[in-house]
Queue: 4 jobs
Job 1
Amino acid sequence: MKQEPLQTNPANIDTLNKDVLIFYKLIVLYMLNRAAFPITKAQVADFILEKEYMDFFTLQQVFAELSASEMISTKSIRNRTHLAITEEGRETLYLFQNRISSSTREKIDAFFRENAMEMRNEVSILADYYKSTSGEYEAHLTASERNIRLVDITLSVPDAETASAICDNWQKKNQAIYQHLIEQLF
């Protein structure tokens, strides 16, 4: 008996693709909800790409759609994009969280247990610069812990290169600088 070739129904493929995309969005929402601090696109991508849940381009589509539907908020600071779940994202996650398998949730939870301190440190030290109305450049440096701002410094400098160098050095030397300030001021 001759076997007929499988007929693919485009409507079934579209439904499957939508279901898979919903699953991917729920993974991102679960991660953002799980984090007790803002996390970066790169941090989310590291986990998702390492576990091979989706490819880079699909992940970018997921970020864009979640942002467009206001389920996540994004904030760019220098070369990092920080993500946070919105109230609408939390409500959506609550309604559909049963679509995320317990093994996937366990992997995400384990990722946060193992990497939370490093991830928190990565987003709690911020540095950015901009051109002020006076024509100078201002390097804005902050260090936070548990949503409490420990240091907030703005330095005016003559050019963008110096401001950029200050921001780079803040990322590398913030602990020593903070310690020096404490020693000198107390």
Note: Residues 160-185 form the longest helix (26 residues).
Job 2
Amino acid sequence: MITLFYRLCDRVETVLKIVGTILFCIMIFAVSYEIVMRYVFNAPTFWSEALARYSMIWIVTLGLAVGIRQCQNIHVDFVARQVPPALKTIFAWMRFLAVLGFAGVLLVYGTQHSIANLGQTVTGLEVSAFYVYLCVPISGAAMILFILELIVKGERGLF
């Protein structure tokens, strides 16, 4: 059962990385296209800035979840390195609970906010704002999954 859970986490991380890579390429294309259109042809576009901005928002929120799984997020570890091992375990659990709480807020309120904006359209792209805000609950769910994986693995390192 644990092996299936680890495989699920691997697959979710792979999907997040693929989506992030695709969105990064889209963002680079949109910015490059806008530069050429604006400065070479003197004909700026109305959609490229919005596409680049929302791609970046998705990249950052999905990247946060991947960073949590890989324990690569910014952390302040001065105090944690100075305490005895028993306190390090307590600090690890405090971090787990704090991140789980934050991820839960992202999941619950992100879902509510996404649904609330289902009928609103994004200026410049003419798509539902639901798709823009959907990255928040997706990231929250992935963060919860990855924190649970770290707990199951017995990870006590700093993240």
Note: The chain has a mean pLDDT of 91.
Job 3
Amino acid sequence: MKNTAAKALSAPKKLAITAMFTALTLLATSVIRIQTPTFGYIHIGDAFVLLSGFFLGPLTGGLAAGLGSALSDLLGGYPLWVPGTFVIKFATALTAALIYRAAAEKAKTGKGRVAWTILAGVVGEAVMVIGYYFYNVIIIGISGSGFGEAGIGAAFVTSLSEIPFNIVQGAVGVVLSTLLAPVFNKIARIGAD
């Protein structure tokens, strides 16, 4: 009976922490935006995308990361990016979570854990950079250059200009999530999915 009550209490706690990570991702993505010359923006929300994956697990963390990031695009005037952002940030958190989970079993010490946290963040953010590159190609194709051979070629070349900005955003996300992980470890460790 005692175990059943503990499980019943964990579901509301997990829901509350998932909502918290969704809101933190939304706020961190929305509040500090640095516009780029390519009409996108750099933000610190990726730190919370990664933290969502680290502490909520691959599925729930992916959902929190994707929803918070997509809401930021929707509310910030980037509705065309909402579906891509949801999928890309979900995949970023999912990837980081899977690596982080494998690392947690291998590295019990501080230095080992930090190294694995950084690795999980870097690989997760690589998913983000690649995902936005291809989604940008699709957006350019939809918005004018078309999907003919010349249009697709132009979209692939034009989309290269976004990569450096996404790398900077990803690097900031990795650094901040690595610094914040010990803090969130104390409040958010809830038996990830």
Note: The first strand starts at residue 34 and ends at 35.
Job 4
Amino acid sequence: MIYFDNSATTRFKPECVINAMVNAMKFLSANPGRSGHSASVKASLLVHRARCRVAGLVNADPSRVIFTLNCSDALNMAVLGTAKKGGHVITSMCEHNSVLRPLFELRREGVIELTVLKPCSSGHVSAEDAERAIRKNTYMIAIGSMSNVTGSVAPVHDLGRICRKNGLLYLCDAAQSGGYTDINMRESNIDMLALAPHKGLHAPMGVGVLALSERVSPNPIRFGGTGTMSESVYQPMDIPEGFETGTLPLPAIAGLTAGISWVEANAHDFRPKLSSLSDYLLSRLKKISGVTVYTPSAHGAIAAFNIRDYKSEHVADILSSEYDIAVRSGLHCAPKMHEFLGTTAQGIVRASLGCDNTKEQCDFLLQAVSEIAD
């Protein structure tokens, strides 16, 4: 199989990630933070080291790095945990349902007012449009760093600057960009950053990350055992423990630590390669008659396209069954982006590259698309 579905999850997992997970399962099968014996203490140290590695990656405080069930869980914590009755939130049509659904649910319940910005010519929202949408009761801007549909890139630094100037919180969904681009929470004034480690960090599924600045302390949205304040029937507010209800996925966290180390050691090689391959694939897709390309540039290692008026699911099925090429089709959990692009009925075919893809594989995809278009 030729795998071009890395925006859903990267297929390549470095040997160090696999080994770290196996070692954790074989030698550290203990519950961190729940007992005082040596195995539990060692497990707790592993979790602490993981917080430090995440914090170093995004320039955050390790004590404010929360491990979640996945990136969607992290985004729900951020949105629901900071909700203000009668407040106003600004988001965009580019966002994933992990941002849109909790926001629209809050609006349906009458908790918040919501503004959803349209993308501009760059394929993403402009910082100027976001600033113009600010009202007296606005408390947060929730706009991700990269569209999972087209790979368009948001002006993260400018959005953070606007939030800080106006006393607003900035929530950034970095599910698609984490590992592929540098993220600096302090320099970009990001208050809440959500990561999907199983994508660009080449970590396993089963763990997400929510990193918080010192300016925000959300309310917990999940309740249960934390290993702290066990005498109380009320959820502790301590960060991070009060937000890590239940047993942590220790093998996945161990894999995340190894994944960060691998990315930091190899980013200088695979990032230019991905950029070059993406440029190559996009430029040639645009030359195929009958193909419409929706990706504005190669920043996100994503090539979003359609062939004539064919359903995207039909194209993906042909690519899979006749060429053994894996891509993603449909609406990609981003309905507002498809509404903007006019592709709600057709969906979009998304080919997303990974560090192990090659020029020859891109050529084979291009040949397949050309044959389908013909």
Note: The longest strand covers residues 87-92.
